[in-house]
Amino acid sequence: MSKKVSAMLAALLSFAVVLGGCGTENLEVKVTPGNSPETSEKTPEDTANQQEVVEEKVDVTQEIVTEQVVTTEETTVLTEEVTQEVVTEQTEKPETEAPVTEKVTEPPVVTETQAPQEQQTEVFYEQEVEPTYINGILVVNKTYPLPESYAPGELTSDTYSAFKKMAADAYAEGLNLWVQSGYRSYSLQKDLYNRYVASDGQAAADTYSARPGHSEHQSGLAFDLNSISDSFADTAEGQWVAENCHKYGFIVRYPKSKEHITGYKYEPWHLRYLGVETATAVYESGLCLEEYLGITSEYSY
Predict the structure, then answer these.
(1) What is the pLDDT of residues 30-87, one digit of tens each?
(2) SS percent in the chain: helix, strand, coil, step 5
(3) Alpha carbon 255 to chain centroid distance?
(4) I need a labelling partner for 116 at 20 to 30 A (CA). Which of 12, 51, 90, 186 fits?
């Protein structure tokens, strides 16, 4: 045996003797940081416990994640529901408030009833009537209107023939007579009357202008001479007409001091044809036509 081998055997024997003389309690275990006995030597039970802990952590993490997901979904659904409710309220609100807005913007009833009274410029007899004859005389005044369809279109032939004869005789005496305003249609009278109402008001207009359908001009039996002014009565022509027109079948239709009966102011220029016999009888009676026939002249509307 060599010396090296002998030395190795001696060393091993010495190490064995040392081990044999030491118990487990004399063993010293040095623990270095990061290398504890619990982690350096693991039993199968420790490994199983560690797996359970890991699995529990995983389960808890999954539950937390699941709860977060569910919570997020619920929050999202809740947000959508709240948003829908807000949108619904916003869309439904105008529908519920619309009637209020319409009521506010609607004009008040007082304005609608007052406006026509303040701006009323059209007043006319709407009812279709038949011409009224009393004792063979066509009567046209505030009580007795003509229908709109009554339209001879001009002065009647008898009326115009009588005027020409009267004008010729007056001319022979150095007087000039002419027709200032003759036949007027229903529509023309309507325009004239409404113009006067707009200018002076209805109450004033009714004293000097007839409502459409109530004008003698529409009958073709009346006309205005020369100047449509009260001053015509003081002219030579006006005085001659007042004294002689009945000889040709005419009367001064609206004489002085008869306004409350005829319904119109004094008009010395307005003549009405009745025929010589009737006109002379009315002239000699000193009455206006309403008095002579025993009728009224008042608007019923």
Answers:
(1) 433 444 434 344 444 544 455 554 444 445 445 443 444 444 444 444 444 434 443 3
(2) 60, 10, 35
(3) 49
(4) 186
H/E segment holding residue 132: strand 132-134
pTM of structure: 0.60
Q: Average pLDDT, stretch 106-110?
A: 36
Q: Please say whether the beta carbons of 216 and 222 come within 8 A.
A: yes
Place of tokens 């305003």: 181
Instruction: Assess whether pLDDT exceeds 80 at residue 172.
Output: yes
* Domain spans, the chain: 132-293
CATH of range 132-293; options 3.40.50.720, 3.40.50.2300, 3.30.1380.10, 3.20.20.370 = 3.30.1380.10
Token pair listed for 6: 């002998």
Distances (CA, A) of 265 to 16, 204, 261: 164, 10, 10
- Tell me the two tokens of residue 88: 């619904």
Q: Which of 177, 180, 215, 183 is nearest to 196 (CA)?
A: 215
In the beta sheet, which residues pair with residue 250? 273
Round to whole Å and give the CA distance between 46 and 210: 125
How far, in Å, are 98, 108, 245, 268 from residue 105 at the CA level?
11, 9, 63, 54
What's the CA gap between 140 and 136, in Å, rounded? 13
**Residues 225-246 pLDDT 10s:** 999 999 999 999 999 999 999 9
b/e map of 154-185 (b: 16 or more CB within 10 Å)?
ebeeebbebbeebbeebeeeebebebeeebbb
Q: Is 267 a catalytic residue?
A: yes
Cα–Cα dist 221/183, whole Å: 8
The Cα-based distances of 113 to 33, 82, 108, 242 in angstroms read 105, 49, 9, 47
Q: Choosing from 259, 267, 277, 298, which is the catalytic residue?
A: 267
